[in-house]
């Protein structure tokens, strides 16, 4: 069989999360997106965006894909682009984890590091990527695109076509609730649309880390930020275009001190290593389970592996400096 990398993105397992299921009396599952070839849920986003650009004629062999990212989308875009004959330029904030910065560079992308600043600053990684893409578009004979992961319909569509359908099939249509955090909004919007098309009674929730404006966007209509978080890749201070028109049934804010123990327990007691965004998602799934009551089936996303955050989430000194809880075995 002639398997080529884009064909092995997706179809990830649905893992039963034993401890939180026992805690809530619900059946809580995590979609093991860290098992994608690039190691995260963003492989799906990357594939959808590149395939759509090729279909539209905006990208031809030898062309360039430019994107601003905290890391996982850059990794996904680079491996997909490598497999399909394109180049990548990845713009990242300097505050991203060292592991992700190193991996983007290792994969062969042209890496541009910019200061870690707020979205309103013109030097923000997203705005920088847009400017770089505009410049490259005039230079590249085979096309240059800005991936625009935050408001690219191809992002939502790939999750409607794949992630949502897989969850429905893997639960035999018995899913009662789905919840995840928002980075670009593509996963939440795409899965929500897919599941609601199958069953309009499926409850859709959003779990938002502190320091993000998404919770207050759904509660108040405006993205007002509160607090801060060390979690990367989710939580935004603006409203991604991918969220346009989405209504949720449940929304919660999750602090790092609530989320991180789920991450450590999952690794130590169930052998599953995940990053901070997955910890927020698991905390959200527990909150949704408590809201819905025992006996329900709830699914969330295990976005990526904890290995991408060893220097932060598994670094006792870093956690102590941020006054965050960590188990004794990390400090040993």
Structure notes:
- There is one protein chain.
- It contains 12 helices and 10 strands.
- 41% of the residues lie in helices and 15% in strands.
- The longest helix is centred in the middle third of the chain and has 18 residues, at 153-170.
- The strands form 2 sheets. The chain has a 6-stranded mixed sheet with strand order 1-2-10-7-8-9, with helices on both faces.
- The protein is an alpha/beta fold and 332 residues long.
- Helix 1 (18-24) runs parallel beside helix 10, helix 2 packs across helix 6 (153-170) and helix 6 packs across helix 7 (186-198).
- The chain has helices at residues 18-24, 42-55, 72-84, 98-106, 125-137, 153-170, 186-198, 214-220, 256-270, 276-292, 316-321, 328-331, and strands spanning 14-16, 27-32, 64-68, 87-93, 110-114, 144-146, 177-180, 203-209, 250-254, 297-302.
- Strand 8, helix 8 (214-220) and strand 9 form a beta-alpha-beta unit.
């Amino acid at each position: 069989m002639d398997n080529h990398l884009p064909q092995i993105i997706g179809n990830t397992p649905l893992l039963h999360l034993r401890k939180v299921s026992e805690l809530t009396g619900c059946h809580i599952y995590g979609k093991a997106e860290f098992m994608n070839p690039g190691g995260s849920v963003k492989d799906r986003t990357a594939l959808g965006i590149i395939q759509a650009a090729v279909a539209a004629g905006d990208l031809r062999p030898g062309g360039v894909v430019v994107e601003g990212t905290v890391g996982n989308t850059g990794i996904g875009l680079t491996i997909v682009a490598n497999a399909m004959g394109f180049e990548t330029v990845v713009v990242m904030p300097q505050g991203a984890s060292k592991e992700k910065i190193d991996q983007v560079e290792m994969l062969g992308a042209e890496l541009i590091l910019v200061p870690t600043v707020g979205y309103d600053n013109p030097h923000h990684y997203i705005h920088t990527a847009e400017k770089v893409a505009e410049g490259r578009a005039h230079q590249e004979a085979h096309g240059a695109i800005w991936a625009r992961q935050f408001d690219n319909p191809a992002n939502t569509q790939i999750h409607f076509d794949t992630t949502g359908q897989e969850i429905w099939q893997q639960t035999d249509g018995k899913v009662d609730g789905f919840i995840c955090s928002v980075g670009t909004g593509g996963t939440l919007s795409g899965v929500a649309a897919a599941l609601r098309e199958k069953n309009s009674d499926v409850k859709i929730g959003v779990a938002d880390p502190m320091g993000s404006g998404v919770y207050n966007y759904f509660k108040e209509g405006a993205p007002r930020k509160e607090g801060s978080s060390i979690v990367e890749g989710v939580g935004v201070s603006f409203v991604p275009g991918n969220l346009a028109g989405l209504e949720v049934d449940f929304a919660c804010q999750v602090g790092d001190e609530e989320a991180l123990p789920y991450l450590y327990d999952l690794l130590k007691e169930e052998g599953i290593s995940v990053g901070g965004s997955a910890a927020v998602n698991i905390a959200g799934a527990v909150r949704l389970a408590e809201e819905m009551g025992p006996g329900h089936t709830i699914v969330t996303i295990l976005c990526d592996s904890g290995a991408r955050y060893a220097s932060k989430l598994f670094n006792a000194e870093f956690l102590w400096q941020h006054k965050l809880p960590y188990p004794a075995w990390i400090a040993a």
